[in-house]
Design brief:
The chain is α/β, with parallel strands linked by helices. The chain is built from 10 helices and 12 strands. It has 2 domains: 148 residues, D-Maltodextrin-Binding Protein, domain 2 (3-Layer(aba) Sandwich), CATH 3.40.190; 109 residues, Periplasmic binding protein-like II (D-Maltodextrin-Binding Protein, domain 2, 3-Layer(aba) Sandwich). The radius of gyration is 20 Å and the shape is elongated.
Length: 284
């Protein structure tokens, strides 16, 4: 039996979490880190004009609230970190629409690395090593590389004798460079020939132990309750050539230089890792 047609909403709600600074920064000369009320409102205004349909901001406190809103159709589309979005997509709650371009690319990889003079050069040599991670919600600095290890039959809890959350990619690099950790995880960008073009370790000589990806920088995902034609129109306003005001407002909100379309096939390799993720999307 075919699913009943989806009824178009009388308004579209765009969901996101806001940075703490975004909630309190009022001075126009102070640029808050992360999404803010003002930037979210500007994007909704631009989308309302482009779509000829009211688009309203819907700010929530946590990713759990965003996922619940998408699942039940209370939020029609939202910006999500990659693996949280992929989990929602894999569960059938959302569909991917677009990803932002940052630093010239919409995609990056995660890389597990050691110092160049380290004896640890591949995953078979990880036993008993000390690992440095960014934080428990970092795709490049924790989630994806650990899921990739688990998918390959390596249990991080057994492989590492010590694990530390460093808070930033730079701090992870410093921990490995200074010998406080044997391996660390950070981001990497590849060129067209398959060589690493840039990475979190900069010019520091390293051994690349394992990579996983590619990973989108963020994902604009639509609720499955939003009619497909409306979701497609939203994606086209961001990725097409005719809506510069929308792209400008979205770029300001998300610190991006542009947007590219994405579909579920682009994310299939990440969906395969969802079963190996260790941290539920329960924090904002």
């Amino acid at each position: 039996m075919a699913d009943p047609p989806k009824v178009p909403p009388h308004e579209i709600r765009l969901g996101t979490t806001l940075s703490d600074a975004g909630r309190v920064t009022m001075r126009p000369t102070v640029r808050a880190a992360g999404p803010t009320h003002g930037r979210l409102g500007s994007l909704c205004d631009a989308l309302s004009v482009a779509l000829e349909f009211p688009v309203l901001p819907h700010a929530v406190e946590s990713y759990t609230d965003l996922l619940a809103g998408l699942h039940w159709g209370e939020i029609h589309f939202a910006w999500l970190p990659p693996m949280i979005a992929v989990r929602a997509i894999a569960r059938g709650s959302a569909v991917p629409l677009a990803v932002p371009v940052r630093s010239g690319s919409a995609w990056y990889w995660t890389a597990l690395f050691s110092r160049e003079d380290s004896p640890i050069r591949d995953v078979t040599q990880l036993a008993g090593s000390r690992a440095a991670w960014v934080d428990s919600m970092s795709s490049a600095g924790y989630l994806v590389i650990r899921a990739s290890l688990r998918a390959a039959g390596i249990d991080p809890a057994r492989a590492f004798r010590g694990e530390t959350f460093c808070g930033t990619h730079d701090a992870v690099i410093a921990a490995v460079r200074e010998g406080r950790a044997d391996v660390g995880a950070t981001f990497a960008h590849f060129d067209d020939s398959g060589r690493i073009r840039t990475a979190g370790w900069g010019k520091m000589p390293v051994n690349v132990i394992k990579c996983a990806g590619p990973i989108p920088s963020d994902i604009l995902a639509a609720s499955v309750h939003l009619p497909r034609e409306i979701a497609q129109e939203i994606a086209e306003t961001l990725t097409g050539d005719g809506h510069s005001n929308v792209r400008r407002a979205a770029s300001e909100l998300l610190d991006a230089t542009g947007f590219v379309a994405v579909n579920r096939e682009h994310l299939a390799h990440l969906e395969e890792l969802v079963a190996h993720l260790e941290v539920p999307p329960s924090s904002g």
